[in-house]
Structures are given as structure tokens and as C-alpha cells.
Amino acid sequence: MRTAIVTAAALSAFSGCQRDRATKGEEKAEGQQVTLLVAGSIAGMIVPCGCSPDQLGGLPRAAAVAKKLRASNPKLIFVDAGDLLFEGTPRGQLREQHELKAKALARGEALMGAQARAVGSRDLALGPEVAAQDAEGVPLLDAGGLPVQGARPGIVLDGGAAKVGFFATGLGDASAAALKARAQQLRADGARFVVLLYQPKPGGGPSAQRALSLAPAAKAAASTRSSSAIATIWPPIPTWPQPPTSPSWRRKAIPVAAAARSKSARGRRRRCAGLLSRGEAGKKEALQRFDERIARLREQADGAPPERKQMYLDKVAEQQKLRAEAAAAVEQAPAGAVVATATFIPLDKNAGEDAEAKALVDRYDEQVSAINLRAAQMQPESCPAPAPGEPFYIGVSDKPKGADATCAGCHRTQAEFWTKTGHAHAWNTLVKIKKDLNLDCVQCHVTGWQQPGGVCRIDRTHVGGPGLTADGHKFGVGRQDVQCESCHGPASEHAKDRRATSRCRL
Fold it and tell me: Are 43 and 86 in contact, with CB atoms under 8 Å apart?
């Protein structure tokens, strides 16, 4: 899963915000609390690629977290705010793989006990029919995009202490009256709280806070894209978060904001304040994660070559400043507020892995490997030859035409340094986790993917040069690993520079 973090939100209503008359099925608000588990903007990412040791996310970890939370709170409500299935519109060789992955993600959320999922724009990447087929029994909520068979305008779920209504919007042009009617219907159906799952239109749209203002019967809003959320850190937010005017497609967490309207004893309607709270536990966890990151950066600085040491030290200083700001932040809940206490749960290695979800991912990997290998064997042996004057890749251990040495032979010091970096181990990273036939992964772990002189078949990555040997290991065999040209561009251009080649000959 792309989402490094899922959100557990406790919605609490206190006496200052209760109505003088309760709606159908609604008890007094004081002391009521329900727990929501919210995911969103997974965007087709089923597990982290494993390129760095501290990556977050993954369906098996998310399933493990959901199972642990539900064991202690059987009435936990789990919903997905949308954008689960795809990152974009899959094309070419990637389409079949991404369709399989979307189905695996949908099955994974069903396994986790998802009770509703908003249909986001990314879920519609291959059309409403695919979105409907990939529901896997989880009720879908219409957010105003293309009509999906079976998608509902809203749903009421039992949270134990109170019922919670959910509806989605953002992709269409729903009027204030329509949004208000949907929220009020959920209240009439017995929902004590109403949560708006907001899906901003690709390219921009009204903010989640604006949508909430159009539906005053709603008491909370969850947006899949917001500037107030960071992948690994819960930032200090002493007041309401401000969603951006244009959505970010790279966010990895869901903030939950709370708002409500209530009647005073004299029947006048007044605005009741809301607060997005992280609570003391959330603040403590945020500071702990800062400490872990600072310690890791210091360790990297100690082991870094002199020319890179200062970069890590600058990062240490930056994180220390952010930590101080987080430690100094003070939250103040307005009297009588409806409070949403959000805990962002990092899906790190401490989350563990659910065995059933892991088996589901393993089956997906096996299917993808078989499909991609069959497709590769039907393709030409090598990439098309470069057009006249078109740059092309050479590889770290092949000689450019007209040169007396390979890239590594001329740039010995740089090549020796490279063999000690993660880039030189990029291919082996995939082999270890059995993803060397996964098109999502391969393109970033080889040099010149589907480019002239590069590699165009996942079963031919080893072709194109013997590579380098260092400490008894081979690096850069063929086009495997992130070689020099991945950052510096095709070496054919460098070989044209007579000054460069002549220096090498000397």
C-alpha cells in the first residue's frame, strides 16, 4: 500500500454541543465515542518496494493493524476514503499487471473488514465497470464521478456507542441543497455523527472545509489529499487544518476534521466549534518518530564519505527544529466542542504482517511474474536500434565506440565508490524479494529501461556487459542496477566528447 499511515479517529461529542431533542435512534451526546479506522489514496500501491530500510506501508501491515485494533474494539468502523485501485491509467504492458493488483488490493480491504469505500477518480481509471467489479462485497459510496453500478449515496454504520453516517462528494457538482439533504437523511436514518469523505477533482476543486460548510448536518470531514498530513510525522496543528486549493497527488495520510451545528436551550442555532486533535499519545508518538529519524540521520552521517557528511548533518538540524516546534505546540479545545482525536498509525515493521494478507500478496506476485515472463518472451531480444543522432545507453562495463576504456575503466574512483552504494545493489534487492519480474519495480532497478541501448525485456536485464567485480560480488551486469547513465544520461553523448576520451587515453 502506498499509504504509509492509516488514521484512527475517535469522535467524541460533549454536552455543550448536544441538541435539545435527539433525532431518531440518537442518544444524548455526552460521553459518546466511536472509533474510525480510515485509509485513503492507496493509489494502487500494494507493498513498498524495499529500496530503503525504513519504508512504510503495505497491505500485510495494514491488515495486521486492523486486526489488532478490532480485537480490542469489535465495533471499530473501517472505511476507505477512495483512490484505492490505481495510481493513473495503466497502459501497454502494465495494464494487465495493474488490473491484477487492483483486484488484490480490493480483496485485501475486504479481508480487513472494510465497511465502505468512496469511489475516487483513480478508482475510475479503467471505467465504472472495473470499479464495480472490484468492489469485492464492500459497499461503494458515490463521490459524484462516473456512475458506478451499486454505488450508494450514503451509509450508516454501527460504532457501538453511536451510529455513524458516511457520504462522499467532490468529483461532481453537487449543490449545497443536495449535500445538505444527503447529510440530513443519514441523521434521519439514525446517525449520531456524519462523516464526509471528500474527493477533490483532479486538477483542483473546492476544499474539504468548503464542502463541509455546504453540508451543515455533517459533523466531520475526511479528505484523501491535504497539506496538513505528512507521511511519517503528525505535524503540530493547534487549529483547523487548511486543505489546499489544488490537490496534491502524493499525500499519504488522511486528516479528520470535526464540525457540528446544534440548538441551544432556547432553540437558536449556533455554530459549535470543532477541533482536530492528536491527543497526548499522538504528540508523544510524533516526538518519538522525530527522535528515531534524527538518530538514523546521525548514524548515516557518521558512515558517510566526507563530501556527503554535511548533507546528513543539515538534515539533522532540520529535523531538530521541526521537533522543537512540535514539542512546543499546545492544543486547546473550545468549550463544548465536537472533537476528532486522530492518531496516525505508521505502517512500519513494528506493525507486523497479517498472514492471510501476505499470502494474498504472494499469490499476486506469482501471477504477475508468470504473466510478465510470458509476455516478455514474445518480444524482440533487444531494444530498437537508435535513430541517427539519437543518444543510446552503453552500460558501465562496455566500451563506447572510439574509446579505449569503459566508463568504469576511465572513472575508476567513481566506479569504486558506486559499488559501495545502494544503487549498485538495486537489482539484487528485487531478486531477494522475488520482484525481478515485476514491471512496477524493474524499470527503476535497471539502466535505460525501454530506451535505445538499454533493456526492453525483463528476462534480458543481464545482457550488455560483464559488469564490475568488487569484494567478490558482481555489480552492473548487463543493464542491471542503477548505473552511471541512470543519473548522467546515455554515455554515447559523453563518448562524442573528444576531450573526455582523450583524457581517458592518457
Answer: yes
Q: Are 139 and 170 in contact (CB under 8 A)?
A: no
> Secondary structure of 423-469 in the HEC alphabet?
HHHHHHHHHHCCCCCCHHHHHHHECCECCCCCECCCCCCCCCCCCEE
Please list the alpha-helical segments (H only) found in 117-165: 128-133
Burial of 143 (0-12, 13-18, 19+ CB in 10 A): buried
pTM, entire model: 0.73
- Which set of grid coordinates corresponds to residue 138? 464492500
Q: 7 - beta bridge partners?
A: 38, 344
Rounded-to-integer distance, Cα 369 and Cα 303, Å? 37
Closest by CA to 59, choosing from 439, 360, 260, is 360
Structure-block grid coordinates of residue 489: 544520461
Query: Is the pLDDT assigned to residue 263 strictly greater than 60?
Result: no
Supply 34's cell numbers.
466511536
Segment holding 221, helix H or strand E:
strand 220-223
Interval 378-412: pLDDT, tens: 999 889 999 998 999 988 888 776 666 788 888 88
SS3 label, residue 166: strand
Q: Which residues are CB-contacts of 444 (< 8 A; sequence separation ≥ 6)?
A: 49, 51, 426, 482
Q: Which residue has the cell 559488469?
A: 467
